[in-house]
Amino acid sequence: MLRFTLIFRPMKSINFEISGEYIELIKLLKATGIAEHGAASKQLVSNGEVKLNGQQESRFRAKLRKGDCIETCGTKITIA
Q1: Taking 90 as the threshold, does the pLDDT of residue 9 lie above it?
Q2: 13 domain residue, yes or no
Q3: 19-74 residue pLDDT tens
Q4: Rounded Cα gap, residues 1 and 69, in angstroms
Q5: In angstroms, rounded to a whole number, what is the distance separating the alpha carbons of residues 64 and 26?
Q6: How many domains does the chain have?
Q7: By three-state DSSP, how is residue 52 classified?
Q8: Considering the domain boundaries, does residue 54 fall inside one?
Q9: Domain range enclosing 70
Q10: Is there a domain that residue 23 lies in?
């Protein structure tokens, strides 16, 4: 008989402050260290692993503005 144990890990939260009007999604993923490079950022988005304000995001260069919330890889990023 196989037994599985579920481990709950709380979502990590990051408040990311931008100085301009917006930041592109793939640049945010690199800047926060979630992705090591642009190709890794694009892979996360292509695989449907990124949510913007609760909805799956498919645009690599989605413009994120203050108040937007990204969820991916167990991390919640709020744009400030």
Answers
A1: no
A2: no
A3: 999 999 999 999 999 999 889 999 999 999 999 999 999 999 999 999 999 999 99
A4: 41
A5: 10
A6: 1
A7: strand
A8: yes
A9: 18-79
A10: yes
